[in-house]
Each structure stands twice: as structure tokens, then as C-alpha cells.
Amino acid sequence: RYSTPRVGAGNPLLTLPALVSRQAAAMLWLFFTLMVPVLVAFALGLVVYYSAPHVPLDGRLNSLVSFAMSLSVLVLVPADVWSALSRVDRTGAAEALDHLTLTALWYASYGFCFVCMFTVLPVHAEALNRGERFWTNRLYESIRYNLTFFAVCTLVGVIGIGALLLRGTLTLDGLVGFLTGASNAFGLFLSLFLMGYGLVEIPKLAWRSADYITRERLATHLAGVRANQLEKAHDEMITCALCTRHLKTYMRHGPGADHLLEVSDEAERDLTELGLLAAAARAVPDREAFDDQDYDDEVGMAKLHRRLKASRTQYQRALVRLPRAVYSAIELSDRRTAGASGSFGSRFESTLSRPSGALRDGALYRQLEWVWKCRLAPLVARLAALLLALMSATVVYSQVTIAAGCGKWNLFSQIVHYGHQCDKVVWAPFAQVLVLLPLMYICWATLFGLFKIEVYSTFVLTKHASDGYSMLTCALLMCRLSPVIAYNFLRITCVDDGRCSSYFHDACAAANTEAECDTAGTVEGAPSTLCAWDAASSTCSLPKAVADTFQTVFYTNIGKQIDEAPLVGKNLNEYVPALLLLHVFLLVIGLYDRLCGICSPTQRFRFSHEDDMHEDQYMIQGRHTLREVRNNIAEGRPPLEGLPGTGQVVATFRADAASASGASNASAAPAQQQLDRQPRGRSWEETKTRLAAAAGRASRGEGVGYKHTRRGSVGVQLSRDPADVP
Fold this sequence. Notes:
- By secondary structure, the protein is mostly helical.
- It is built from 26 helices and 4 strands.
- The strands form 2 sheets. Strands 1-2 form a two-stranded antiparallel ribbon. Strands 3-4 form a two-stranded antiparallel ribbon.
């Protein structure tokens, strides 16, 4: 414990504030040096693990930076809490290196997430999803699409802000704080909704993982769902490819012809890479799948190109999900059978092939594997479920007690402030661990809810099968939620409640002499007292600048603006989190699923999958799929050989109808000849008529102005004036 003499002229302690500030900054930079590489490596792992091979480099880099910046709260929040609790030199904290470092990093992280989620990420995601020929056209259409959406939102916001300004509820000086608070309020409602789902489902899934019978039935049902999705994605992929083949015979000239060649080449390349050439050659196309589409110009080609890219993504995603569901169901069946028929000393026999080796093939390894999979794993799952349920209950309780203040009822506040005394320094690793662990669980629960609820199934990340649009959309939502999670977590930890400033304020006020004033403001390791003695009035007080140093940098620079905003300020952020208890209760009793079942008979919006164990078409299809896979494994063939949609069977468009009509040689004929023999629908006849009319006008030069350019050829400009035509 350092002595605290009066700092004056000639006192060697004049150099201690700078020294202590450098030590605090050095410890902060050490924490960043250890955590930032881990954070970047984790973000890079997400991009490499989930991105599909066709995702462009710019999409990968944008996803990497956005993931890293959105997850930076896992580094900044623990460092900010430790800095607020254990800052030594508080008399010069505004100029301290650790304070300046945290201020710059918070503004960089918060500013990046706020700006990118409204500009770069939505524009880039939509541009990757567009089907126009040139990147400039894709970028233009993406900007136009997003500007239309934001224009509507801005109009509604301007009307609301104008009403508040006219009523006097809001002033121009507080407009920035109100906009920040409104954005935070929207994110708060969304994060609480997703967090509640994750807090309920994570312990439930852990508890259910110990019940092999229930998990096997769910996995069988899921295998049927995945098999059905693969068949539909396979049919859509073949339809798009055959559509491009057919259009090439009619659109050799005219608007969109060059784009059609590129789309057709891309379709053939996709068929080759996915092994679907044979299936496309044997398929009889369904004309109803594209009769109603207009693909006779650049706009139509853009629609077709976008549809082709979407079908490729869905097929790759289904091709990854089906084996995972099938292998999981087979593994669970093996565990259930081995656990029911075996005893200690039995060997675990797996239906699936696995790497061989002297260790894996040994009797001891098989026996230990049986003990773990059939006895210990269910027990560990039950214990983990109880621990996760306790964590979830702690999070819900802490959210509910925000409105009650930061007293002894707030559990997270008690955990973070455990052993903390205002006149002593907190050990940095201990404080950071106490903050990091619950924060990681809250982030996990929120992101789990984001990617698991069925309404967001379009943006689910799938291993090596996620397109750029899904990656950037997920990054956008993470940037939307991460600042809100940081602000909400700082509120439930009560670091900014001012308890230490109140402690020193009372201690300084109780001092009657200058010596007592120096002693009252003593902090362990501090070079000088925190209290200020006023000789004129003979009073001792705590300066406001020093009192503010007991608050986090995030709250000082951003949180105060949110709290001071009207309508969406402090009261809303204190009382709205209490709704999490009601939300969790409704999830536990399954009321949401009942309401969604009434409002959406197709079960598009679902919160639980407990009803998937009943007997339906997917359960039957799942059993059939598992039976085929087991037969293939028993006969030594590839497990998925012969399954519909894997590219090794005849497509299911109209093959049965064609064979029933006596077209015995239809599968051997080229696909284009089969298509020519099919009767056309009305819309397709109209399309042919328009194409013929456009070709006639182009030959006469009437009302057509386009440039027909192909690679390796010369562009020809057709004039609108018939007199200019030679």
C-alpha cells in the first residue's frame, strides 16, 4: 500500500501518475494482444467453415471483418469493466492511455457496426444475390432496392420525429441521442426475443440429447425432411438448367442473348461440378415450372440467373444436410441398441465406417467407447443441461431485476463485484473472467435463437454450403445485435451504478481537516488522493471528473446519450427486459407454437420441434432413406448411392408420365428433342410470339436499339431509324 503524501513541488511522486497510467495501458494492451488474435482466428474459422466454394473473395473478406467487429464486444466489455473497477490514477483518467485506447476502440467497433449494417452489408448482400450481367448493374439495382426500403423507413421516422419536436418532447440538441436510443430500443426488443428462445432451447436440447429413443425418432423425421428438400432442390436445379438449354434455341439474337449464353455456361458448369449431367439428360422437363416466366430480355435473364444461383445454393445446402441427418440417425440407433443389449465389458459396434487403426480396432478401445456412448454420455448431458438451465435462470432473473436497482438482488452484479472494494485494485484476470463467461453465454443464446428459429431458415449457415448473401445477412444481424448486448450486459452487471463514487463522496464529505481529506480519498496504488480540499470553505469534496471515472468508457461516451433520450431512454431499458420472463414462460408452455399453428397451418413459423416425433410422410420417407443407406453400407456401396436427388437417379419431373404414355425411348433422346415434342402452354406461346416479333423488328430495324456483342466478335449497333438501315 503506497503512502499518500501531498503532491507538490519537488515531490518525486509527480512522475507516478504517468507511470501508473502506462502500466494500466500496458496491461490492457496485453489483454488485447492475447484476445484479438483469438477473435480474428474465430471469425476466420467461421468464414472458412461455412462459406461455399463459389462465394467471391470480396464476400468472404466483408464477412470476416463484420464477424470480427461484431464479436469485438467479447473483448471490449471485459476490458472496459476491469478499467472502470481498477483504474488507479483517476485524477488524470481522461488523458490516461487506457481510457483513450478504450474510447477509440469503442467508437471504432460501435461506429463500424452502426454504419455497415445500414450501408455496406445490405448493399453488398443484395448485389451478390442479384442476377444482372455486369457488376455495375448489380450494384445499381442493389442500391436502388435498399434506397427504396430505407426511404420508406426514413419517411416514417421523419413523421414521428416531427411530431415529437412539435410537442416539445424532443429537442434538436437531443436528436442524436434519440436516434441512438431508438436504434438501441429496436435491437433490445429483437435481442430479448432471440435470447429468450436460446435460453429455453439450449438446456432443453442438452437434456434431450441423453434420451436416445427420442433423438432417434427426431433424427429419422429430420432425415425424411432433408431427403424431401434434396429432391425439391434437385428438381429446381435441373429445371433451371433445361430452361437455359431451351431458351438458347429461340434467343440467338435480341436483348439478353449474350447474357443467356453466360447463364447457360454457368448452368452447365454447375451440372458438371455437382454431377447432374446424366440426370439432366434423362429428365423430361416440367414446362409448368417456367411457362409463366418472361425471359426474353435483360430483365428476364436477370431473373433466370438469380433463380439459377438460388437453386444451386439450395441444392448444395441440401446435399450437405442430408448425410448429416442420416448419419446421426444411424449413430443414435447403434447407441440405443448397444445400450439396451449390452453391459459393462461389451464392445461398441458401429454401422458406419470409420478410420481403422491399431488403437481403434482394439478391444479396450471398443469397450471404453461403449462405456462412454452408452453410459457416461447421457449422464454428462443431464448434468450439462442442469448447469445450462441454471445459467439461463440466472440471466432471466438478472434481466427482471434491472428495474429493481443494483442491490443485493441482482446476481450478475454480485458476481462481477465479488470481493471488490472501492479502495482496492481488482486483479485483472479474475475480473475479466467473471465478465467474459456470462457474456459469452448471453451471446451464444442470442445467436442460437437467431439461426435456429424457422422464420430465419433462409439465412442458416451450413457447412461449406452458405452463399455470400446468407453470410453477409448473418453478419448484418450480428452487427445489429452486438452493441445492444454490450449495453444490456453493462446494465445487468451494475458497473455504472456509481457505488464507488458514492462511497468516496461520503468519505470526502466526512473529512473535516486537510489531513483527513487526504486520507479519505486514498486508493491502493494511487499516487495521490481522490478528494479535493477547498481551503476557502474548509470543505472536502469529490470532483465530478473523478466521480465519472468509476463508470465504463462505453457508458460515458454512448450509454449516457441513450439514457437521456426521451421515450427510448433509461426507463425503457430498465423495464422492457422484465418482459423476458413472460416470453420464456410462453416458450416453455408452448403457447407460441399453438398460435403459429392456428395462424399458419403450413407450419412455416415454428419455435419447437417436439411434434416431429409423430407419424407423417416425413417419418415414412426418413425410414425409407435410412433403409436404403443401410443396404448400401451392407453391400459395400457408397452410403447415399441411389437416393433421389443425389444426381445418380432419374429426375422426377415427368419421367413416370412419359413412360406411361409409351415414350420408351424418351430417356435416350436428347433433352431438347423431348422438350420440342411437349405441348406448349399459353404463356410460352405468347413468349414465342413476342420473340418472333422482336426478331422481325430487329431485322427491319424498327423500334429496336440494342448492341449485340459476343466474345471474339464485333458489336453491331442497330438504329431506331429505318432510313439508316442499309
